[in-house]
């Protein structure tokens, strides 16, 4: 019997069509898992950096800048970040309420609102 060995996760040696398909599927799945792990690690890194470093801009700022280019009237974005402790408590509450009224009642995902949205979309809404 011939010596069969693995190289880079792919099976070297004579295989039937089914064996080749399984080998290729394993290779693709490993690549997908690695890509997802790198993406997750990168996301965590960005969140950690943004914990201490102010973001260079917001999605709305980017949208406005692109719109200005499309309209042929470029604009300059100006922003001044204010420290959290210099913002009024009332404004903090208003911003949070405007984004998510149940912010203080969940851990990042409003499961009830997600379920309601799924039902709404299933009904064609």
Automatic annotation (TrEMBL):
Cross-referenced SUPFAM superfamilies, in alphabetical order? Lysozyme-like (SSF53955)
Question: Where along the sequence do coiled-coil regions lie?
Answer: none
* One GO cellular component term: peptidoglycan-based cell wall
InterPro entries to which the protein is assigned, alphabetical: Glyco_trans_51, Lysozyme-like_dom_sf, PBP_transglycosylase, Pep_trsgly
Gene3D superfamilies associated with the record? Biosynthetic peptidoglycan transglycosylase-like (1.10.3810.10)
According to its UniProt record, what is one Pfam family this protein matches? Transgly
Tell me where the transmembrane regions lie: 35-53
Taking every annotated instance into account, which residue ranges of this chain make up the domain Glycosyl transferase family? 77-122
Q: Which GO terms describe its molecular function?
A: pentosyltransferase activity
Q: Name one GO biological process term.
A: cell wall organization
Q: Give the superkingdom in one word.
A: Bacteria
Record keywords: Cell inner membrane, Cell membrane, Cell shape, Cell wall biogenesis/degradation, Glycosyltransferase, Membrane, Peptidoglycan synthesis, Transferase, Transmembrane, Transmembrane helix
Q: What is this protein called?
A: Monofunctional biosynthetic peptidoglycan transglycosylase
């Amino acid at each position: 019997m011939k010596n069969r060995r693995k190289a880079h996760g792919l099976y070297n040696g004579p295989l039937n069509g089914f064996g080749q398909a399984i080998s290729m599927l394993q290779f693709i799945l490993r690549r997908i898992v690695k890509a997802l792990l790198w993406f997750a690690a990168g996301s965590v890194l960005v969140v950690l950096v943004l914990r201490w470093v102010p973001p260079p801009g917001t999605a709305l700022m980017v949208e406005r800048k692109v719109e200005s280019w499309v309209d042929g009237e470029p604009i300059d974005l100006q922003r001044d970040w204010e420290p959290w402790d210099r913002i009024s408590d009332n404004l903090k509450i208003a911003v949070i309420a405007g984004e998510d009224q149940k912010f203080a009642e969940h851990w990042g995902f409003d499961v009830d609102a997600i379920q309601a949205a799924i039902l709404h979309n299933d009904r064609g809404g």
